[in-house]
Amino acid sequence: MTERPAELPHPVSIAEWARPQGYSDVMVGTGRVIVTAGMIGWDPRTREFRSPDLVQQVHQTLENVVAAVRAGGGEPGHIVRLTWYIVDRQAYLSRLREIGVAYRSVMGKHYPAMAVVIVAGLVERNALVEIEATAIVP
């Protein structure tokens, strides 16, 4: 008997709710779970920040998240949840369009469940964003 391939993680819509923009309300999947540590926007080899710019740090942070998920055997499309920690709410809101461009350049049009939390600071003094990921690999 041939086993049916496992289904990729996918969003589920809640019929009565407005459609989310740039994220999913619910993701469903079955398989092996990958959980990353909080990733920040530095070069992971040197632990130095290439830029003090929020959008550049978001891009590098997402690159680091994807590298960590790949190290666990997953791909960006397996990511079901991202939790973002941002140190400057106004900077984040005023640059959402640019952040969206940076996001899509790394993640494509894959929009997992997400939360954005505004924090007073991060452990690494120059970090402007930290992102944790959960992925499910079928």
Strand content: 25-35%
Major β-sheet annotation: 5 strands, mixed
The tally of helices reads: 3
State the secondary-structure class: alpha+beta
Helix fraction by DSSP (H/I, runs of at least 4): 25-40%
- What's the rounded overall pLDDT mean? 94
- Counting DSSP E segments of at least 2 residues, the number of strands comes to 9
Element-by-element helix/strand order: EEEEEEHEHHEE
Radius of gyration: 16 Å
Shape from CA axes? globular
Identify low-pLDDT runs.
Answer: 1-5
**Between the first and last Cα atoms, what is the distance in angstroms?**
19 Å
Descriptive report:
The chain is an alpha+beta fold and 138 residues long. The protein is built from 3 helices and 9 strands; from the N terminus they run ββββββαβααββ. Strands 3, 4, 7, 8 and 9 form a 5-stranded mixed sheet that branches. A two-stranded antiparallel ribbon has the order 1-2. Strands 5-6 form a two-stranded antiparallel sheet. Strand 5 and strand 6 form a beta hairpin. Helix 1 packs parallel to helix 3. The longest helix is centred in the middle third of the chain and has 18 residues. The radius of gyration is 16 Å and the shape is globular.
